[in-house]
Structure prediction request, 241 residues.
Amino acid sequence: MKLNIYNQEGEAKGQKEVSDAIFAVKANSTLIHQAVTAQNANMRTVLAHTKTRSEVRGGGKKPWRQKGTGRARAGSSRSPLWIGGGIIFGPNSDRNFSQKINKKAKQKAMFMVLSDRAAGNGLAVLEKLNLADYKTKVMEQILNNLEGKVFNNFKIEEKNPASAKATADKGKSKDKKTRSTGRSILFINDASDAKVINSVRNLSGVKIINLENINVVDLLNYKNLIISDKAVEKLEETYKK
Prediction:
């Protein structure tokens, strides 16, 4: 399988031969669902916790003597029957929601999502990303180029007539254009780059991760995928077997 390689201006600079075992895998929704469910379960943090009678503070002294008071027997004021006592069947932080999934199954699910993005024109291989400084404006322009020329989902819509009339009344042009919202881009870089990370973090709808952190949930959460040329090479080298 061949994928186009684009530069920062969104222009195709050639093609790259990629492995069909990674970018041309037939999708299996059951396996993908299993991988997503397992990842979400393994990331789950158990916060709810109630104290049992052994964890509640106090109650070491017997409230009253065993016999002769006419009251029911009591050994501790931290009994679940008492106000302020322990909880019998409440939630506990020792609960374990983790799920096991085979390593090969998880990898194959990831390949299926990558293949789906490649087949649906939602994947762009970036030749190289050179940022001279920490510039969000430069990164914004690069994303605009790729959205407009590669993904073909970057639409510029005219304002409705009422909005245009209101703008004209304020002394502005009727031909004012607005960019439709809904950007959804996941950028996968081959290595950590502080300039790229800091230039992207203020852009809405954009997330950058390293190749080491690639996962099914992030791939599914974003509509378009940008991956560096070196990241593709490292991905094939890692999973070449």
Remarks:
- The two ends are 17 Å apart (CA to CA).
